[in-house]
Amino acid sequence: MHIPDGYLGPITCAFFYIVMVPIWYLAFRKAKEKMESRTVPVLAILSAFSFIFMMFNWPIPDGTTGHGVGGALISALMGPYAATIAITVALLIQAVFFGDGGITAFGANCFNMAFILPFTSYLIMNLFKKAIKDERKATVIGAAVGGYIGITLAAIFCGLELGIQPFIEPGYCPYPFWLSIPAMAFAHLTVAGPVEGVVTALVLEYLYRYSPSYLKLEKIGPKMLGV
Amino acid sequence: MRKALIVLIILILLTPLGLLAPGTAWGEWDIAEWNVSESWKSIAERMAGIWSAPLPDYNIPGWGEGILPYIGYIISAVIGTILVVLLSIAIGKIMARR
With bands split at pLDDT 50, 70 and 90, how would you rate the model's confidence at A225? Predict the structure, then answer.
């Protein structure tokens, strides 16, 4: 889901930078309110986890590849604003040093993977927490389902951004949305989504068993999504 | 925290598994492979040339043969992880400052 340079026209690139600026600002401000120095290493480990997790490319039945992001896990442990920061850092290093995701497309890539994914999964997890009494069950299942839906929604946004290019800014991604959206949705509904969901559930279940203190970290997220 | 670091190190050593999947992610092909006119490609390629990463595709440039790409992938994972940790700790420190 890392859109390279040359796939999005300048207007689309500028648009997503402009959209991301207030999200980055809010994430930083909220984190500044709630972040404690003892949780800084946790944020760093989770950001590193996301970076490494994205290096595991999985085969998609149509001959392409896909990967998980770890956004649902970070969101479940530290809240979606913390996830925005952690994933933005991973995406920045990927773009600048490894050419994975473009510099011009960085705003759009952050919008999909560092905003849509963690905020969607957080909302869904909290809906599960409201519906299911058992906190542990609700967190594990809710975050996993949230990861599955969240990464798929992020991929659909990615497909939309690519697929509108031929109509609004010809000269960049030539493939229309009726090809790009189904392709992105398919890869994430079949493989990358289940990977994101299962890994989220496994890590949360492990932490509940052996290091439950990590589940009590303060969640940095908007009250609105607390449900 | 020490356990988490050990898990990260194990995952880094396993990253070459991520190279086994055949093909490229949808929409991440070389622009040269696009099925459009050369003039269309030249517009996109001008933008794509805006930045060249020092370790493109998580590999050392020129390490294309045999086992080298897998070693390059692990080296990239190590370098990337260190950079991500340093940057997130720097940002985290600013945020945690009262």
Answer: confident
Q: Which fold has domain A10-217?
A: Arp2/3 complex 21 kDa subunit ARPC3 (1.10.1760)
Would the CB atoms of A171 and B25 count as touching at under 8 Å?
no
- Out of B25, B53, B56, name the one closest to residue A65 (CB): B25
In A, minimum Cα distance to B19 occurs at: A57
CB B24 to CB A65 under 8 A?
yes
Chain B closest-CA separation from residue A145 CA (Å): 23
pLDDT digits (tens, 9 = 90+) for A201-216: 999 999 999 999 999 9
Q: Per-residue b/e over A28-60, b at no fewer than 16 CB within 10 Å? A: bebbeebbeeebbbbbbbbbbbbbbbbbbbbeb
Spell out the domain ranges in chain A: 10-217
CA A167 to chain centre: 27
Using one digit for the tens of pLDDT, what is the confidence trace for A76-109? 999 999 999 999 999 999 999 999 999 999 999 9
Interface test with B, best of A56, A109, A158, A180 (most B CBs within 10 A): A56
> From the list B18, B47, B79, which residue is nearest A57 (CB)?
B18
Q: Rg (Cα) of chain B, in Å, rounded?
A: 18
**Interface TM-score (ipTM) > 0.90:** yes
Among chain B residues, CA nearest to A35: B96
In order of A108, A166, B17, B31, the CA distances from B13 in angstroms are 30, 41, 9, 31
**Residue in chain A lying closest to B18 (CA):** A56
Cβ within 8 Å of residue A51, ≥6 positions away: A90, A93, A94, B80, B81, B84
